[in-house]
Design a protein that fits this description.
alpha/beta, eight-stranded mixed beta sheet, 14 helices
């Protein structure tokens, strides 16, 4: 049998008894002795009257004290039970599922939501009965068992002290699945899951719950700690894209940033651009409520050296998503491979003759383009990762399976340019290059009379708008005698860079993965037009090449999300590769894969010419190690998206399990049950009875 109180107001009830008694005693001590009058009978009468009223006054005082006490107890909302709460009566097996994703880093006063959740687990284990066992599951992706079953509170608390909020996203489904499997093997009869989270909806993926093999009827108590946060997450840096502008002589670094405003009001926030740890530019932006705003910084590239930086907005309740990192390696020369699909013994009749001279007319790197000529037979022997741009000039078809290599090249950021001609096999292009081409080649179109021309009026394409009016006038006079007609593929997006005078596309452009595909629907030699012998051909082909190469992400500029492995795809097995992480730790790259990417920031790569290092653990970069590039790791912004999951949705995911959702107070909540008879109403009735007794006693006196 137990009497439980859910509020400290019980103490006020005790004070209700003590204070009136104390006042009464002090009052009696201050009373002065009554002087006796000369009339003896009057004195005796007064004494008899006092002796008769003293018991009534004491009873009245006790009744008032009892009324105050009962009223205080009623406010404490007590209940009466014949048994103690099961969490404190019998040992239990408890799985604590702790959401350690970065959204739990929101400030709640001077601490974070994660700190409050940890405190709850500490207090829960302290108050649990002896012989209980505990396990800890971390709910960030990938969900994992951090502590298997243990009854040793010291071991469990040591595990808790080692935990900190991560930079990962939430994966509640896998965490619950692992918790159920833990409880299936638990020793105690009483079993329960405590889920400590902020109920962000992005962590509850329906597909994760649909993979459950079974749902055991274990009770799940969900503690929603988002009710404690002192402020909202007002915005985030959604994305950052880096490109190098080759179309002007100044060589600009362009940083395109997207900022999201989560609030319902206009947000005025400063956006800062950092390079090598210093602010180089800052803008004050007005971001519409609930919208995403794009902004672009431009910065002159004065040196041909790597640049590391980040973009950052002002701090709010969640600082993790207020910045995003990038690294960039300016390239003075663009490596281009020209695949000649129609080589001839006479050089000027080859498909690549005019292309090679237009891309680099002086045989030196004045154009910042370095072309390499390859035949179809030599193509499989080339390493595509050595090039930024591949031009297929009048290629009939590729060796079996090589289209997959080209597809991988483009998806990773490469640029692929096509020139048509009489060798092109449209059937092969349509059947084998469908993942790359946004269109289907239809047929060759030959002009019977006259010639086609380019339509260049009001052309605002980045390649074309840099030409002077005189150059555009000259380009409009170029004669085209043959071209390929095309048909759009379903669900493919592309844009037309230039049109022919017969209203057919001349140049088609499409983004594929991180790369780009460009098709010129006439030939790049003199077979179908006289463009290659015109002065404007040189700047035209150079600018299309430069334009397509500016978005290239090489292997050492990979932009990864937290937890995604870095893979080195270039050759170099005879060297040791070292990764310098943002936290200063050094790691040896094993099997050309680095998986410890759980810290956002810029990772630096080094290589050693020797095949072995003296130790598998490094404290400093070894002598002789040479810089080899960088890659960046950023958070997955889906964790920042607002929106909470409802209890109804949780119950649909965990059908058959008893779900209880609570919002902890600012002080640490502890598991309690409410089984028993509530006593608030009886206490109030007793207070009313005391008032009636008091009135009767006063009236009788």
């Amino acid at each position: 049998m137990s009497l439980n109180f859910s509020s400290p107001l019980f103490l006020y009830g005790l004070l209700g008894i003590a204070v009136p008694v104390l006042i009464h005693l002090l009052t009696r001590r201050q009373q002065k002795h009554i002087r006796f009058s000369a009339v003896y009978l009057l004195i005796q009468s007064q004494k008899r009257s006092t002796r008769k009223s003293r018991p009534n006054r004491l009873l009245l005082l006790l009744a008032r004290c009892l009324a105050i006490t009962l009223f205080s107890l009623a406010l404490a909302d007590p209940f009466f039970s014949f048994r103690q709460s099961e969490a404190f009566l019998r040992p239990a097996s408890i799985v604590f599922v702790l959401d350690d994703s970065y959204s739990m880093g929101v400030q709640a006063g001077k601490r974070t939501l994660f700190d409050h959740a940890l405190e709850f687990v500490f207090e829960g284990t302290k108050q649990a009965p002896e012989k209980s066992e505990y396990s800890l599951v971390l709910a960030s992706s990938p969900a994992r068992i951090e502590q298997d079953w243990t009854s040793d509170k010291t071991i469990f608390e040591k595990t808790l002290k080692a935990q900190s909020v991560s930079f990962r996203t939430t994966h509640i489904g896998d965490a619950i699945d692992q918790s159920i499997k833990l409880l299936d093997s638990a020793r105690q009869e009483k079993k329960k899951i405590f889920l400590l989270t902020d109920l962000d909806k992005n962590g509850w993926k329906e597909e994760a719950f649909s993979k459950f093999t079974h749902l055991a009827p274990y009770p799940v108590k969900v503690l929603n700690f988002s009710s404690l946060q002192s402020d909202d997450n007002k915005g985030m840096v959604k994305s950052v894209q880096i490109s190098q502008e080759f179309l002007t002589r100044s060589r600009l670094l362009r940083v395109k940033v997207e900022i999201r405003n989560f609030s319902n009001i206009l947000s005025r926030r400063p956006l800062s651009l950092f390079l090598e740890g210093k602010i180089v530019k800052e803008e004050l932006l007005d971001i519409p409520p609930g919208q995403t705003l794009a902004h672009e910084f431009s910065y002159p590239l004065r040196r041909n050296q790597p640049l590391n930086g980040k973009v950052q907005i002002s701090d709010d309740a969640l600082t993790t998503d207020n910045s995003r990192y990038f690294s960039f390696h300016p390239s003075q020369n663009i490596k281009v491979m020209v695949v000649d699909g129609d080589p001839e013994t006479i050089s000027h009749q080859s498909e690549s003759f005019y292309l090679e001279r237009a891309l680099n007319p002086f045989s030196v790197s004045l154009s910042h383009i370095d072309p390499t000529i390859s035949t179809l037979a030599e193509l499989p022997l080339r390493n595509l990762s050595d090039f930024s741009v591949v031009i297929l000039a009048n290629v009939r078809e590729l060796s079996p399976g090589y289209e997959l290599e080209l597809e991988k090249f483009v998806l990773n950021g490469g640029a692929l340019l096509f020139g048509m001609g009489d060798q092109v096999n449209p059937k092969y292009f349509n059947e084998h290059l469908g993942n790359l081409l946004p269109i289907k080649l239809d047929s060759q179109y030959h002009v019977k009379e006259g010639a086609l021309h380019l339509l260049l009026k009001n052309n605002t394409h980045p390649v074309m708008k840099v030409f002077s009016p005189k150059e555009l006038a000259e380009m409009r006079e170029i004669n085209f005698y043959s071209m390929y007609t095309v048909q759009a593929r379903e669900d493919k997006i592309f844009k037309v860079g230039t049109w022919f005078s017969n209203q057919n596309p001349a140049v088609i452009e499409s983004n594929v993965g991180k790369g780009i595909v460009v098709l010129f629907l006439s030939s790049l030699d003199r077979d179908w037009n006289d463009f290659p012998i015109q002065p404007t051909f040189l700047p035209w082909i150079q600018r299309w090449t430069q334009y397509s190469a500016r978005g290239l992400d090489s292997v050492f500029r990979q932009s990864l999300l937290v937890g995604e492995p870095f893979r080195k795809s270039t050759s170099g097995s005879d060297s040791n590769w070292i990764v310098h992480a943002p936290d200063g730790t050094l790691h040896i790259l094993e099997n050309e894969v680095f998986s410890n990417t759980f810290q956002p920031g810029i990772y630096h790569l080094f290589f050693l010419p020797s095949s072995e290092t003296s130790s598998k653990t490094l404290e400093k970069i070894p002598d002789g190690a040479e810089p080899a590039g960088t890659f960046t790791v950023n958070i997955d912004v889906q964790e920042s998206e607002p929106g909470k999951i409802s209890q109804k949705e949780i119950e649909s995911f965990l059908e058959g399990m008893k779900i209880e959702i609570q919002e902890p107070h600012s002080q640490t909540a502890t598991p309690q049950t409410s089984d028993g008879i509530p006593l608030a109403t009886p206490f109030l009735l007793m207070v009313a009875g005391m008032f009636l007794i008091e009135g009767w006693m006063v009236r009788k006196e």
